[in-house]
Amino acid sequence: MDLDHPLLVLDPTAADPHAEARRLRQLGACVPVELQQGVRAWITNDEATGRAAFTHPALVKGVENWRAYREGEIRQDWPLMALVAGETMVNRDGADHTRLRNPLNAAFTRRPIRTYAGRIEEIAHGLLDDLAGQPAGSVTDLKAGFTFPLPMAVICHLLGIDDPDMRDRFGDEIATILRSTATPQEVGAAFGAVMELLDRLVSQKESRPADDLATRLLQSHRDGELTRAELVDSILILVVAGHETTVNLLANAVRAVLNHPEQLALVRDGSYGWSDVVQETLRQDPPVQRIFLRFAREDVPLGGALVRAGDPVIVGMTGAGRDTDVHPDADRFDITRKQSGTPIHFGLGAHYCLGAPLARVEAEIALTALFERFPDIELADPAPPRILSHIMNSVRTLPVRLVPAG
């Protein structure tokens, strides 16, 4: 096998990501696939191969290591270019990665995250207050009213984004960038709008500094630790990673427990906690389908394939989570499941997700508040349409009845 012979063209509609992941696992642990605009990459399809891709020293970040990119074969309007080529810690290794990550470390350690809990609770209860007036039996979109605005409000609180219009526009434009069916023109326009918003935010912090993460990143720029482009891209990746993934985690967890009332009963009787729900959701229906991209610095044997120097590698998270060699009865949602070893839901090694502790805390607080306020909540549609993304994994809407009829 080689990249000239992709075994599967990935479905841009993401209509059934778990069925696609099963098909990929049947093809092999690491196989060549094709994305938009004919871009080709290897994808890992089980946990062991995903773990190897995260930790192999010759699989590195940096778009300059991508042979097809260096040779001009990748169009600049490729929809995912902004994410794989941005000047952020996500796309750099070694000293550059450390330099870009250091200004953020202090905000995401366990101690400050515990101090955020009160604010997260306030945001959650405020949103639930807004939903509480729904007539009994009426259907409301819980994603629009709760699971989407809560993480956006939290990350904007950390960054010091106080303007509601700016928050809403960030959410809308980033959703377009991540939508796999968006045209290059739509993605370009959305990316331009996001850059305009980020420039406006940085200008605001220059004139009115505050005790927030955006101001601290601006100070790192002034101290010569970050370039202007690195400053802007770092804020962008925080908004993308700090919002969209937690939105999906929350929506997927709510769907899972409402579709499995016997599992919800285990939480309600105190046998298990919301942390167990979060952990099993991360495995069984993760918020991120695939993690883009690593590049082979040299030829690398991976999952029975030979990844050639300069080839890109995608880590398949849906395939890893439902790997039957590691997780018996892997399709079943089971919060009593004992998961051995270090999970790979948030990556491994130097690139382990900085915001993982915050995402867990947000999800546990939000789920606790939701099910305490609306103990009789029920799904109005057990299988709503999926979001259209090669990267993210969730639903476009989450129709529920907060108070059942009668």
TrEMBL record:
Q: Which domain of life is it from?
A: Bacteria
Please report which protein family the annotation says this sequence is part of: Belongs to the cytochrome P450 family.
Checking SUPFAM superfamilies in the record gives: Cytochrome P450
- Does Heme show up as a keyword for this record? yes
**InterPro entries xref list:** Cyt_P450 (IPR001128), Cyt_P450_B (IPR002397), Cyt_P450_CS (IPR017972), Cyt_P450_sf (IPR036396)
Give GO terms: molecular function aspect only. heme binding; iron ion binding; monooxygenase activity; oxidoreductase activity, acting on paired donors, with incorporation or reduction of molecular oxygen
What's the protein called, per UniProt?
Answer: Cytochrome P450
Listed Pfam families: p450
Query: PROSITE patterns, from UniProt?
Result: CYTOCHROME_P450
> Which keywords does the record carry?
Heme, Iron, Metal-binding, Monooxygenase, Oxidoreductase
Work out whether the entry's keyword set contains ATP-binding.
Answer: no
